[in-house]
Amino acid sequence: MQNRAIEAAAGCASAASSFAELPAAASRGPLRIEYRWVNQQANAQQDDSPIAVFLHEGLGSIAMWRDWPQTLCERLRMRGLVYSRPGYGLSTPRAPDEKWPVDFMTAQARDILPALLDALAIDRRQRQRIWMIGHSDGGSIALLYAALFPDALAGAVVIAPHVFVEDISVQSIAQTKQLYETTDLRAKLARYHADVDSAFYGWNAVWLDPEFRQWSIVGALAPIRRPLLAIQGHDDHYGTMAQIDTIAAHVPHAQLVKLDACGHSPHRDAPAALNDAIAAFVRAHQ
After folding, report:
1. Which residues form the AB hydrolase-1 domain (predicted)?
2. Triad 122, 91, 208: Cα angle to 5°
3. Which residues fall within 8 angstroms of residue 57, CB to CB, at 6 or more apart?
4. What integer is the mean pLDDT of 169-183?
5. pLDDT for 11
6. Handedness of CA 69, 281, 153, 112 (dihedral sign)
7. Which helix (H) or strand (E) holds 19?
8. DSSP string for residues in 116-156
9. Residues 6+ apart with CB under 8 A from 215
10. Cα–Cα distance for residue pair 182/112, rounded to 1 Å
């Protein structure tokens, strides 16, 4: 099933993608994770530069980032690790009858991401030089990772993250479901995922689950002690400034950037302003 899906969506990722095999864990079976290095030297063992780990949005994948990770890594003079989470891109798809639990983002931060770093032989010393860069759901996962493993990174940049559920988020996600089922949105997303329904309904179903309305990671943020930058666009239809203001209230050292004329995807809506903000922040903390 997975191989046929990958072949059918061969255009959604370039030949540069590699795959990491994650062994089964107590709460899941084995996984195959699509990943790609950016700016990696030919001999990775001799590359001691910092690593930017990119965590994509709820409908994202390696391919959907396009060239932004490359552009940012060149600006930061870092190597980058981009990967597709299970259910996305060319990674192991979600089973048709599998429903993600309310705490699915915690599971990604606590289990999948550390297992991927292990599989890629990124040791403790290297992890202390990692900058987590997450967008939307990926931003939430970056926050959770920074809280769960406060010494296993150099810092984090979270872009349009979610720390609790707002009405605007649920309304926009419900509208996206209607578009997926009535317009060409499904065909467009199929260019980026081997199993597009796996990606879409995994994300959409959990966000629209009534139980998810009570989801919050606000109480989990206090252990974060590495540098933290939170960025939000004023025109974001998936969340308000209350998200990053709440982060600042619970992580006093966090810095905030609020972008004008910018929606939910600053790397597409305002890339120059976003890159400037990230570069200045990272430079100040290196």
Report:
1. 53-277
2. 110
3. 64, 135, 136, 137, 138, 265
4. 98
5. 43
6. negative
7. strand 18-22
8. HHHHTT--HHHHTTEEEEEETHHHHHHHHHHHHSTTS-SEE
9. 102, 103, 164, 165
10. 33
Query: What tokens were used for 37?
Result: 């290095």
Dist CA 69 CA 93 (whole Å)? 23
The Cα 61–Cα 45 span in angstroms is 26
Q: What sign does the dihedral 144-145-150-156 (CA atoms) show?
A: negative
Q: In which element (H, E) is residue 246 found?
A: helix 242-250
Q: Determine how many CB atoms are found less than 10 A away from the CB of residue 166.
A: 16
**Contact 34/89 with Cβ under 8 angstroms?**
yes
SS3 assignment for 28-82: ECCEEEEEEEECCCCCHHHCCCCEEEEECCCCCCHHHHCCHHHHHHHHHCCEEEE
- pLDDT tens figures, 23-72: 998 889 999 999 999 987 644 555 678 999 999 999 999 999 999 999 99
pLDDT tens for each residue of 107-165: 999 999 999 999 999 999 999 999 999 999 999 999 999 999 999 999 999 999 999 99
Q: How does strand 18-22 pair with strand 31-38? A: antiparallel
Residues 174, 244 contacting (CB under 8 angstroms): no
CA dist 177 and 32 (Å) reads 27
Domain at 2-285: CATH code: 3.40.50.1820
pTM exceeding 0.85: yes
- In degrees to the nearest 10, what's the CA dihedral of 206, 208, 210, 216? 60
For 275, the token pair is 């890159």
- The residue whose two tokens read 């959770």 is 144
Residue 8 has pLDDT above 90, yes or no: no
Determine the number of helices (DSSP H) and then strands (DSSP E) in the chain: 13, 8
φ and ψ of 35, to 5 deg? -145, 165
